[in-house]
Amino acid sequence: MPDLSNKEHMDRLKKFSQKISRESSIPKKLVVAGPGAGKTKSFKALLDAQPADSGVLVLTFLGNLKRELERDLGHASSVFTFHGYCHHLLRKYAVLRRGLSNDFFYCPDSLEIIREDWKVLNNGEPPDFISPLRSNLKNELTEFYLDRSDYYDAIGFDDSIFRIYHSLASEPEIDLSYDLILIDEFQDFNKLESDFVELISSLGPIVIAGDDDQGLYEDRLASPKHISDLYLAAEYKNYELPYCTRCTKVIVDSANKFMQECEARNIIKNRIPKKFEYCPPIKEIDSKQYTFIEVVETSVQSGSVNYFGRYIEREIRSILPDDIAKSRSEGFLTALIIASNPFRRAIEDHFRSNPDIELQSSKNDFEPVDRDTAIRKLADYPKSNLWWRFILSYDKPEGWQEIVKGSTSKDALIGLVPDEFRNSVLEEVRGLRSRDRADKTPQPIDETKPLVKIVTFEGSKGLSASHVFIAGMQDGTLPRNPKEPSHIDAKKFYVALTRTRKHCHILFSRNLGGYNNGKPSIFLDWIDDGNKRSLYADKTYFNN
C-alpha cells in the first residue's frame, strides 16, 4: 500500500471502527484486533449508537481490564469480570442459588478448606477440583466441591460460573435479555466460559473481541481454539481493527517481524490472519522520538549486585515531568517492569522503599483469608460454618479431623467444636471488638511521582505504559528451551513488547551470580538490527 497522509489514515481508522456499529442488523460479530487496536473506542461507538435506556452487558476476563472498561464505558453499560457477573446473578436471583442462602459469602479461598476436607474425609491427597469446573464437567469431584461450598455457604471464581451456567440452562424462564452484549479478551476463556458465552449469545446481539496472539492462560485451560472456531463459524461476521493506536513504529515493526519468525519456525500455528499496522496520526511524534528498542546487557545480575534494578531506576528518574503527568491524566502507567523470578523479586526489593516513585500494587477482587480475617468475620457472623472452618484449619485443636467428619451431617460447626475451644475463640472475638481499628485514612497521592508497576509476563495483560522494561531475557528464562521455544513463551514476549507506548528496554545478563549463566534470549535475534540499540551496563557505567 502506498504511503497515506495522516488524514487518509484517520479516515481508515474511523471507517473500521464505525463499520462495526453501523451494521446493526448483524446479531453476532467477532472483532479480531491486535494489541492497542482501539477495541475500547469501538465498544464506545457501539454504545453511543444504542438508545439511551438500552440494557448493555460488558464482560471481560481481567480485573484491570474491567476497571479500564468501567472507566470508559461504565456510564452506559454494566461492566463485569466473568466471575463478577455470575456473583451478581447469584445475588439477584434466588432460584439460581439453590444450595446457597441469600447472604452467601464470596470467598475464593474456600477452595483451600474444601481441599483439606477431602484429605480428611477420604484419607488421601486432594484431587484437582478446578480443572473439571473449567472443563464444564459434571462428575463426583464437582459434586463434592459444590456440596461443601453449600455447607460453607460460599462461592469462589470458577464454581460461581459453573453454578450459573447449569442453573441458567435449566431455568429458561429467567429473563436476562440485553439490547447488546460485549465480550472482551475471548482468547483467554476456558471451555466453561466459552460454553457460557454460547449460552448467553441468544439473549441479545453480541459482539466478541479478542486476539489469538495474546492468549497466555493455558495453565487455566484457556485455549485460542475457542476464538479460532468463532472466526470460522458461519453465524459470526468477522471484523478487523488493523491500526495500533498504542505503540510506536519501532514496536509495531518489531512485533510483526517477531510473529513472522514464529510462524516461519512453526512455533505458532493456525494464526487468525490479521493486520497490525502503525498509526502515524496518533503515534508519529513518539515514533520520531523513540526510534530504537534498548537492548541492555548488564555485566552481572544477582541479589547483591542488582544492576537490573539500578538501570531501571536510573531510566525512570530521567522521565520528564510532562511524561509523568500525561500517563496519570490518561490513566496508564508511567513505567511497567515485566520479569520472571528471581529477577522480579530482586527488582521489587530494589524499588520497595524508593520514596521517589509510586509503586502500584496488584488489586485483588477479594480479601485473602488469614486467621485475623477469620476472627474478624466471626465477629460479624458468629454462627458461620465458613469462618469456624478457617479457624479450625489455622488452630487445628485436638480432634479437629473428627469435627470435619462430623460436619458431613450438615450440623453447624459452632455446635460441633469442643466447648472450651469455642469459648476461647469467642472470647478472642469479643476482645477484637474492643480494640481500636487501625487508621485507614487514605494517604494523599503525589501526582508528580512516576506511577510504576512490577508484574509477571502474564500479569502484564491489560496494562500499558509509556516506558516498558522487560528484564531477564536470557535463554533458559524466556524461552525456557531455546532449541524448541514454546508458543506460550513466544506469546509472552509478544504481549510484553506491545505494552509499550513510547520506549522499550530489554535487559539480560550473561553473569547471573551462579544462578544460570547463559546467553541472551534467542528472541532478541528476531528483532531487526536497525530497530534495536545495544548498551553495556557495568560498574563504570553506573559510576558515571
Please specify the SSE layout and strand pairing.
Blueprint: H1 6-22, E1 28-33, H2 39-48, E2 56-60, H3 63-73, E3 78-81, H4 82-92, H5 94-97, E4 105-106, H6 110-122, H7 130-134, H8 140-152, E5 154-155, H9 158-170, E6 180-183, H10 191-200, E7 206-210, H11 225-232, E8 237-241, E9 243-244, H12 249-264, E10 277-278, H13 280-289, E11 293-298, H14 307-317, H15 321-330, E12 333-339, H16 343-351, E13 358-359, H17 371-380, H18 385-395, H19 400-406, H20 413-416, H21 419-434, E14 451-455, E15 465-471, H22 487-497, E16 500-509, E17 532-537, H23 539-543
Parallel strand pairs: 1-7, 1-8, 2-3, 2-6, 4-5, 6-7, 9-10, 11-16, 11-17, 12-14, 12-15, 13-14, 15-16
Helix pairs in contact: 1-2, 4-9, 6-8, 9-10, 12-22, 14-16, 17-18, 17-21
Walkthrough of the structure:
It is an enzyme of class 5 (isomerase). Keywords: ATP-binding, Helicase, Hydrolase, Isomerase, Nucleotide-binding. It comes from Candidatus Colwellbacteria bacterium CG10_big_fil_rev_8_21_14_0_10_42_22. InterPro entries: DExx_box_DNA_helicase_dom_sf, DNA_helicase_UvrD-like_C, DNA_helicase_UvrD/REP, P-loop_NTPase, UvrD-like_ATP-bd. Residues 12-248 form the UvrD-like helicase ATP-binding domain. The chain is globular, with a radius of gyration of 26 Å. Helix 9 runs parallel beside helix 10 and helix 12 runs antiparallel to helix 22 (487-497). It folds into four domains: 3-87 and 176-241, P-loop containing nucleotide triphosphate hydrolases (Rossmann fold); 97-159, no CATH class; 251-357 and 449-543, Rossmann fold (3-Layer(aba) Sandwich), CATH 3.40.50.300; 371-433, no CATH class. It contains 23 helices and 17 strands. It has 544 residues and is α/β, with parallel strands linked by helices. The strands form four sheets. A seven-stranded parallel β-sheet has the order 13-14-12-15-16-11-17. A six-stranded parallel β-sheet has the order 3-2-6-7-1-8, sandwiched between helices. The mean pLDDT is 90. 40% of the residues are buried.
